């Protein structure tokens, strides 16, 4: 649902987009300030707004990624990295390992994971600059998974066409000038087999270099 505005209505409804704006990570006490010239919202400037293909630097875009585990976990509760560079995911678009300098950032707003049918997944978390967030990780077992997304089965009968969105985190986390990633851990007894996990990440991508 929604409303389609006429081009002539844009200035009246949206006015001018003002900067600076801030990406705030309260959990880690980090703030990234983004500055641009104010943008009057109209038909001529539409593609220069955040999410548009003709933006100036810094570029601000929505980000969403999905990934499967291309390898089995270690059966030792070790961190499984959804990392393209070491062959843990099949495509670069699935990569959830971010090694950023000061010119790149992501504000992670949501993560989700669908456990393996065998029930060997135990926990999921973000890992930023070597620290887990949240500290105790998030339980994501087959029967207790607050990060469940997509088809509601097994929490509802498979005959019910109910779907969950990617869960939003209680507070967003900023990955900027550091290494950040999504990790999953098995139960320490049995490995999660290949392609049994489906992981998702949503947020805002910031690029402060380029044309």
UniProtKB/TrEMBL annotation:
Q: Which organism is it from?
A: marine sediment metagenome
Annotated protein name in UniProt: Uncharacterized protein
